[in-house]
Amino acid sequence: MHIKIGTRSSRLALWQAEHIQTCLEAGGLTSELVLIETKGDLVLDRSLAKIGSKGVFTQELEDQLRSGSIDIAVHSAKDLQSTLPPDLSIIAFTERERVNDVLVSRNTTLSLTSGQPFVVGTSSTRRVAMLRHFCPHIKVVDMRGNLQTRLRKLDDGQCDALLLAYAGVHRMHYDDLIAEYLPIEDFTPAVGQGSVAIEAADTLPIGKLNAIRQLTNHESTEGALKAERAFLRRLEGGCSIPVFALATNINDQISLTGGLIDLDGQQLLRETIVGPVAQAETIGHQLAERILGQGGDEILQAIRHQLSN
Length: 309
Ligand SMILES: NCc1[nH]cc(CCC(=O)O)c1CC(=O)O
Description:
Blueprint: E1 2-7, H1 11-26, E2 30-35, H2 39-42, H3 48-51, H4 59-67, E3 72-76, E4 88-93, E5 101-104, E6 119-122, H5 125-134, E7 139-142, H6 147-155, E8 161-165, H7 166-171, E9 178-181, E10 196-201, H8 206-216, H9 219-235, E11 243-250, E12 253-261, E13 268-276, H10 280-308
Parallel strand pairs: 1-2, 1-3, 6-7, 6-8
Antiparallel strand pairs: 3-10, 4-10, 5-8, 5-9, 11-12, 12-13
Residues 76, 78-79, 164-165, 167-168, 193-194 line the site of the ligand NCc1[nH]cc(CCC(=O)O)c1CC(=O)O.
């Protein structure tokens, strides 16, 4: 069996696609990579929030899934919109890497909790808002581009440190630059952070689907991500909305913590719901209802209004 794998061509995307290739090879499947450019890769002069979050890193891959020129598309689970088009679905989630955000710098003595002021670069509205909330002494600057580009901007002196997902930093072998692991209790990560998702069209033959899923899917991670993604879906949060959620799945019990923060970090809502993995999506939905009922509705409206200006 031969699998055509569609991927973006950034180094992190290639790491992910090659990781999937390794899993498939272990089961005797052959594969090839098909490199695809997306709008998110091409448009670097505008913030992600302004391009519009919906599918900026996925649209071109999805077109090729439909045309059959690729069998599967590999994404960071975090970058996949919460509602997929009806003819596409996620067929596997890989085992999650450590989920924390990390502070990355050439000066690894820097610490967000020390109270010392310095400049942090990030493009994520969630990280900006959380920095404003937990670290008001920190100056935040917008910093787009892939990891290598951001590190160059760091070296140019545009900021003192970056705030990034540990998963990406580790996969690109930049562990030496990690100054601090941010606690997930405060800096709850983005939905899906640390897992790789495989997307396919409904037309993928069932034999291929089952073989790919068997070799790549991590069941416990899948249950956790189902809960997180149901939460995100109910809040209709694209990646530019500062929504966060993290589920753990231990002995088929889901514990889902998630919430919402407004753009300037003034109001942070966060709650936890526990329940059986068989009800992962219900748990996600319930958590979203609870957050919306606590004023999340108004926060979301205000965020949408601010982002559209
Ligand atoms: N939005 C970009 C993106 N998508 C996935 C990762 C990191 C790897 C992951 O979380 O799976 C990153 C970079 C970052 O947030 O630092």
